[in-house]
Amino acid sequence: MKVLAAMSGGVDSAVAAARAVEAGHEVVGVHLALSRMPGTLRTGARGCCTIEDSMDAQRAANMIGIPYYVWDFSERFKADVVDDFVAEYSAGRTPNPCMRCNERIKFAALLEKAIALGFDAVCTGHYASIVLDENGNKELHRASAWAKDQSYVLGVLTAEQLEHAYFPLGDTPSKAEVRAEAAERGFSVASKPDSHDICFIPDGDTRGWLADRVGAETGDILDRNGDVIGSHEGAHAFTVGQRRGLRLGMPADDGKPRFVLEVRPKDNTVVVGPKEALAIAEIAGSRFTWAGQPQANPEVPFDVEVQIRAHADPVPAVAVLRDGELVITPETPLDGVAPGQTAVIYVGTRVLGQTTIDRTVSAVPVSA
C-alpha cells in the first residue's frame, strides 16, 4: 500500500510513520505548513505546526529513511479553520478548531491531494482503531488505551475517508510505550511534550485575539428573566459555563455565583444564571455525519453513548433523527454544553457519528 504519513513533528506521528514502513508499506512523509507567518503559531513545547516542528519531522523522516516534503496548506487552513473559528464565535457558538482541522485539512484537503497523487491512505499518529465489520465495511473505534483515546476528534470522518485512513497506534497500550519506542529508534522527539491549546493564537489570549478580529462593543448581561444585571465589553469574549470575569454589580438573590448560560451575538447580550441551569437535558444539530455505515432506521430512537468533549466521560443516551436534526437525550443531564461544540455518539467502542450542536434544552425551567 502506498501511504502518505502526516508528520506533525511530534512523537506520535513519527512512530506511526516508522510502523507503517515496518508493515511493508511504501511511505512518504509530509508536514503541513499551516501559516505563512510561523510566528503566528505557537512555538516550543506548547505548539504544533511551527518551523521547529517541521525540522523535528524532517529529522524523524531522515532516520526512518523515507522521502519528506512540506506542503503549504496555509490558505486552506485560514479559510476552513481560522475563519470558521471567528465566524462561529461571532455567531455565539463555541467551536472546536482541532475538530475542524481533522475534518477539513487532514482528512479532506490532504486526503484529496494524496489520492490525486496515487496514494492509498493517509497515516497519522492518532490513537484510534479501524475495524472491519462482518460485511467488510470499515468502522472507527476507540483506541485500546482509553486514557489517550482520540476517536472523539476523528468523529467527523465519513465512510469514504475511513476507507483511506490508517492509524498504526490504535492498539498501543500507552503513550509511555510510544515514547520508549521512539527513544529506541533514536528519535529526538521521544521526550517532546504534547501540544496544547489553539495553535493559531500565539499567546493563548483567545479573548484578546477575538477582540482584534470581531471588535468589542458594550452590551447587557441579563438574568434568565431578561432583567439587566450588568454589562460587558463584547459578547464574543464569553462562553457557556464561564464564571469568572462577569463583574456583576447585582448579586443573586440566593448569594450564589452565576454562570454564563447563553451568548446572543445578534443583540450583543449575555444570559447568566445559577449553576443548576447549566444542566442540559437535550442537544440537537442539523450538521451531522455518520462515521462509516449509517445507523439503520435512524428515525427510530436508538441507544448510544454521547461524548461532548475530547476528554469527557461518555454518557448513556438515546438518539433519533427527527426533522432534519440528530436529537440526543442523555440519561443524566450534561453539564455546560454550548452550541458549536461537537457531540460524538458511540455504540460500545465504535464511533457511530457526530453532530455540531445547534441548540440545547436546559433541564431546569426558567421559573425554577
From TrEMBL:
<keyword id="KW-0694">RNA-binding</keyword>
<keyword id="KW-0067">ATP-binding</keyword>
<keyword id="KW-1015">Disulfide bond</keyword>
<dbReference type="InterPro" id="IPR014729">
    <property type="entry name" value="Rossmann-like_a/b/a_fold"/>
</dbReference>
<comment type="function">
    <text>Catalyzes the 2-thiolation of uridine at the wobble position (U34) of tRNA, leading to the formation of s(2)U34.</text>
</comment>
<dbReference type="GO" id="GO:0000049">
    <property type="term" value="F:tRNA binding"/>
</dbReference>
<dbReference type="Pfam" id="PF20259">
    <property type="entry name" value="tRNA_Me_trans_M"/>
</dbReference>
<feature type="domain" description="tRNA-specific 2-thiouridylase MnmA-like central">
    <location>
        <begin position="209"/>
        <end position="273"/>
    </location>
</feature>
<dbReference type="GO" id="GO:0002143">
    <property type="term" value="P:tRNA wobble position uridine thiolation"/>
</dbReference>
<dbReference type="InterPro" id="IPR004506">
    <property type="entry name" value="MnmA-like"/>
</dbReference>
<keyword id="KW-0963">Cytoplasm</keyword>
<feature type="binding site">
    <location>
        <position position="125"/>
    </location>
    <ligand>
        <name>ATP</name>
    </ligand>
</feature>
<dbReference type="GO" id="GO:0005737">
    <property type="term" value="C:cytoplasm"/>
</dbReference>
<feature type="binding site">
    <location>
        <begin position="6"/>
        <end position="13"/>
    </location>
    <ligand>
        <name>ATP</name>
    </ligand>
</feature>
<keyword id="KW-0820">tRNA-binding</keyword>
<feature type="domain" description="tRNA-specific 2-thiouridylase MnmA-like C-terminal">
    <location>
        <begin position="282"/>
        <end position="357"/>
    </location>
</feature>
<keyword id="KW-0489">Methyltransferase</keyword>
<keyword id="KW-0547">Nucleotide-binding</keyword>
<dbReference type="GO" id="GO:0008168">
    <property type="term" value="F:methyltransferase activity"/>
</dbReference>
<feature type="site" description="Interaction with tRNA">
    <location>
        <position position="126"/>
    </location>
</feature>
<feature type="binding site">
    <location>
        <position position="32"/>
    </location>
    <ligand>
        <name>ATP</name>
    </ligand>
</feature>
<comment type="similarity">
    <text>Belongs to the MnmA/TRMU family.</text>
</comment>
<dbReference type="Pfam" id="PF20258">
    <property type="entry name" value="tRNA_Me_trans_C"/>
</dbReference>
<protein>
    <recommendedName>
        <fullName>tRNA-specific 2-thiouridylase MnmA</fullName>
        <ecNumber>2.8.1.13</ecNumber>
    </recommendedName>
</protein>
<dbReference type="Pfam" id="PF03054">
    <property type="entry name" value="tRNA_Me_trans"/>
</dbReference>
<dbReference type="InterPro" id="IPR046884">
    <property type="entry name" value="MnmA-like_central"/>
</dbReference>
<dbReference type="GO" id="GO:0005524">
    <property type="term" value="F:ATP binding"/>
</dbReference>
<feature type="active site" description="Nucleophile">
    <location>
        <position position="101"/>
    </location>
</feature>
<dbReference type="GO" id="GO:0103016">
    <property type="term" value="F:tRNA-uridine 2-sulfurtransferase activity"/>
</dbReference>
<dbReference type="GO" id="GO:0032259">
    <property type="term" value="P:methylation"/>
</dbReference>
<feature type="region of interest" description="Interaction with tRNA">
    <location>
        <begin position="148"/>
        <end position="150"/>
    </location>
</feature>
<dbReference type="InterPro" id="IPR023382">
    <property type="entry name" value="MnmA-like_central_sf"/>
</dbReference>
<feature type="site" description="Interaction with tRNA">
    <location>
        <position position="341"/>
    </location>
</feature>
<feature type="active site" description="Cysteine persulfide intermediate">
    <location>
        <position position="199"/>
    </location>
</feature>
<dbReference type="InterPro" id="IPR046885">
    <property type="entry name" value="MnmA-like_C"/>
</dbReference>
<keyword id="KW-0819">tRNA processing</keyword>
<keyword id="KW-0808">Transferase</keyword>
